[in-house]
Amino acid sequence: MTELVHYAVTDAVATLTLDSPHNRNALSRQLVTELFAHLERAGADDEVRVVLVESSGKVFCSGADLGEATTEGMEVGARRIVDLQRLVVTLDKPVVTKNLGAVRAGGIGIIAAADIAISADEATFALTEVKLGLAAAIISLTVHHRMNPRAAALTTLGGEVFTGAEAAAYGLVTQSVPAADLDARVAEVCASLATGAAQGLRESKRILNADLVRRIDERGAEMAALSARLFASDEAREAMTAFLSRGK
To answer: pLDDT per residue over 31-66, tens digit each?
Structure first.
């Protein structure tokens, strides 16, 4: 089986690279399982101070794997993505995301869970669930914690594309920079974070994310159940089948 998430450590930074181009880094069972394992690996490595999540191509993540969702349902997958967000939020080391290009639906949950998210100005985001008869349920746990309420309503109800620069203004990402400057800016941020002492990073992150952890723990099961119910509905199945057929 081809590896979908690569792991490398340089200068105290563990880089996790999403590399599933055939489905635009969709959150398949395999990709989520590998990402989960690599996050835990980085968390247990005393040589690692910072975790960076990026993609091998322009698409950071296209969201849920609709092919799996339409054939096998979403109950287990939804709970796993809730657990993935919680792991990012509770990892004892800062997690940084870097996206050069597109992020859609569930992929936005990973970026929202991260402690620091750096995006290219030209990157695009969209909470497309509403177009498919779904709702941004499981990722609302992190996305709505980061975004200001007006921006959350606009993007969640409209489902329209917005840019990296707009994502920064909305509070979804920490900063957006021109695409040509993205690598340098992310390297600078990671190098700065890596100077922190392990205990200082761990305890500071716990303070920062205490409210978000409570939100995930209190509403995670409810949002996973809602997501599974919506994915199983006739309306959503018809919309997803039409969407998948359009790409063939």
So the answer is: 999 999 999 999 999 999 999 999 999 999 999 887
Q: Which two tokens stand for residue 85?
A: 């967000």
Q: Are 61 and 104 in contact (CB under 8 A)?
A: yes
One-letter amino acid of 173: V
pTM: 0.94
Instruction: Quote the pLDDT of residue 217.
Output: 98
Question: What's the token pair of residue 83?
Answer: 């657990």
Closest of 146, 131, 117 to residue 236, by C-alpha: 131
Mean pLDDT for the stretch of residues 76-86: 93
Residue 81: how many other CB atoms lie within 10 Å: 27
Structure tokens, 205 = 């992150």
- Answer yes or no: is pLDDT of 226 > 90: yes
Q: Report d(CA 211, CA 223) in Å as an integer.
A: 17
Radius of gyration of the chain (CA): 17
Of the candidates 63, 185, 57, the residue with the CA atom closest to the CA atom of residue 121: 185
Q: How many residues does the chain have?
A: 248
* Strand ranges in the chain using DSSP code E only, listed in sequence order: 5-10, 13-18, 50-55, 95-99, 103-104, 116-120, 124-126, 162-163, 175-177
* Sign of the alpha-carbon torsion through 163, 166, 171, 177: positive
- Which of the 8 DSSP states describes residue 61? B
Say if residue 70's pLDDT is above 80.
no
